[in-house]
Write a structure and sequence with these properties.
heterodimer, A: about 425 residues, alpha/beta, Rossmann fold, 3 domains, 6-stranded mixed β-sheet, about 15% strand, B: about 80 residues, alpha+beta, 4-stranded antiparallel β-sheet, 2 helices, 4 strands, about 25% helix, about 40% strand
Chain lengths: ~425, ~80
């Protein structure tokens, strides 16, 4: 209804609405091409406000034609005003966009998978698949079960069983591939190209990735239709950060955010729009190809072999790395990386100050925010949002050995009071 | 004579600075009888990136890719890392 088809992000060639992901001419990635003039006529802040609090309240800006069949309770996660953390870091206004409580599998992936599953059904697929060691697998398995679709999850054979339980519980077919990371990667691409399945982050990727935009739509709406001055975003494949930028441009184009030097209404071409938000990329030092590219001002992303506890960000060859680079440069933001120790400290800091237990990717964004404030890149009087994209209950091993020990006592009051004296 | 089956494979090559001036793609193509078709290219001061379609015998393409890797070129699938 509101989508015209697909368009190559490199050469601009247009394609029909089909499960395609790469331009057959330049091999550039394809992206959903919207009919913005039609959207502009229909969508208003009032219409959005009248809808249910889930990610589909922005449905005109999402690539489905019919009714959504997944994610009807996904999205609209809390935007927490983090006063304690702000005080600790020495800034005035700090917010946490908390997707660690996203329905149904406690990560931001529930947004993209909701769109992918709805679109896959629309295309007539009966089977969805993904290759994942964590959050993506959990979400695909869960939402495929609810949508009554067959589901295949591919994992490297050496992955610990404990990591698969949160996917296995939904009874997908889990296929353990005996090979290294690159071999699993290559095989899955071959399978996606051969089988008529909806491989969410391969042939459905252009549609799937659009779900990420709802993260920033919600932030802006929850701030009273105000764009933040800064947002710190974790970078794995580079899709979320570039879609946040696209989402902001769309809101600016629609005139939903008022900004200085506003050009609202004057163009439907997102390429020419420059929202005022500065976007900051956050990665772990053990896997920081995008941060390196930004610091070296080199738009070619050099692939790396990941070595970090932040497994959900361990993408050495990010598919959208160049677009992540471009987003940060265009927005006037910056990028930083942090060590594994800083990541753990970031997780603990957020838990201690705001009562939120995030996974390692959240430790990365908190630690990077701290660094950016110390560097003076994020100013004390600006409004900053930290992206929290996953739940700490899933990666407890990352912090379990770095926490305070338990106080053991005998079952009597004396024993308790002796220990209490030692503590105080 | 049995006609050998040709296959096509798309790859992204990332060249380190020291290899930008070397005709490594040509050498690989000649050595392993591969037809390279350049679809996209980008060169900065320190790095080069090339999106290529390779056509040749499957085992030759495998050998050609190994040859490039040995020289220090990063050979990556255009889809990027999809194990997420």
């Amino acid at each position: 209804m509101y989508t015209k088809g697909l368009k190559c992000r490199e050469c601009g060639r247009e394609y029909p609405k089909e499960p395609l992901y790469v331009c057959e001419y330049c091999f550039g990635p394809l992206e959903v091409n919207y009919d913005y003039s039609k959207i502009k006529k229909k969508l208003s802040k009032e219409l959005i406000a009248s809808r249910q609090k889930n990610l589909w309240r922005y449905r005109e800006l999402l690539p489905i034609d019919g009714e959504p069949i997944a994610g009807l309770q996904s999205g609209f996660t809390p935007l927490v005003k983090a006063n304690n953390l702000a005080k600790e870091l020495g800034v005035k206004e700090l917010y946490i966009k908390d997707d660690s409580v996203c329905h149904p599998t406690l990560s931001f992936k529930d947004r993209v998978v909701s769109v992918a599953i709805s679109k896959s059904k629309e295309f007539g697929f009966d089977t969805v698949a993904c290759a994942s060691t964590g959050n993506l697998a959990n979400s695909v398995a869960s939402q495929a079960a609810q949508a009554k679709m067959n589901c295949f999850v591919f994992i490297p054979a050496d992955l610990e069983l404990g990591k698969v339980v949160a996917s296995l519980i939904y009874a997908p077919k889990v296929v353990a591939v005996e090979g290294n990371y690159d071999e699993v990667n290559r095989l899955c691409t071959e399978i996606a190209n051969k089988y008529k399945w909806a491989f969410v982050n391969i042939n459905i990727r252009p549609y799937y990735a659009e779900g990420s935009k709802t993260y920033i739509y919600e932030i802006v709406e929850q701030l009273g239709w105000r764009a933040p001055d800064n947002i710190v975003v974790p970078v794995a494949g580079g899709s979320l950060i570039s879609k946040i930028w696209k989402g902001l441009k769309e809101l600016k184009m629609l005139g939903f955010i008022d900004e200085p030097n506003d050009t609202k209404g004057s163009t439907l071409e997102l390429e020419h729009l420059r929202p005022s938000t500065k976007i900051y990329a956050a990665q772990a030092k053990g896997c920081s190809p995008v941060v390196t590219a930004i610091k070296e001002n080199n738009e070619i992303i050099k692939p790396v072999k990941p070595k970090t506890i932040a497994k959900s960000l361990a993408i050495g060859n990010p598919a959208d790395g160049y677009y992540a680079f471009k987003t940060v440069i265009e927005s006037g933001g910056w990028a930083e990386d942090v060590t594994d120790e800083e990541i753990v400290e970031g997780i603990k800091l957020l838990a201690r100050t705001e009562g939120i237990f995030t996974e390692t990717a959240g430790g990365v964004t908190v630690a990077v925010t701290k660094k950016l404030i110390q560097q003076g890149r994020i100013k004390k009087d600006e409004l900053t949002v930290i992206s929290i994209t996953g739940n700490g209950l899933k990666t407890q091993e990352a912090v379990s050995s770095k926490l305070d020990t338990i106080i053991k006592i005998k079952p009597n009051l004396n024993s308790f009071e002796n220990e209490i004296k030692n503590i105080s | 004579m049995v006609k050998k089956k040709l296959v096509k494979k798309v790859v992204k090559l990332v060249f380190p600075q020291e290899l930008i001036k070397e005709p490594v793609t040509f050498k690989m193509a000649k050595k392993y009888d591969i037809i390279p078709n350049i679809r996209r290219a980008k060169v900065t001061e320190t790095t080069g990136e090339l999106v290529l379609e390779l056509e040749g015998e499957e085992k030759n393409i495998e050998k050609g890719i190994k040859y490039l890797i040995k020289l220090g070129v990063d050979v990556e699938p255009i889809e990027g890392d999809i194990v997420d």
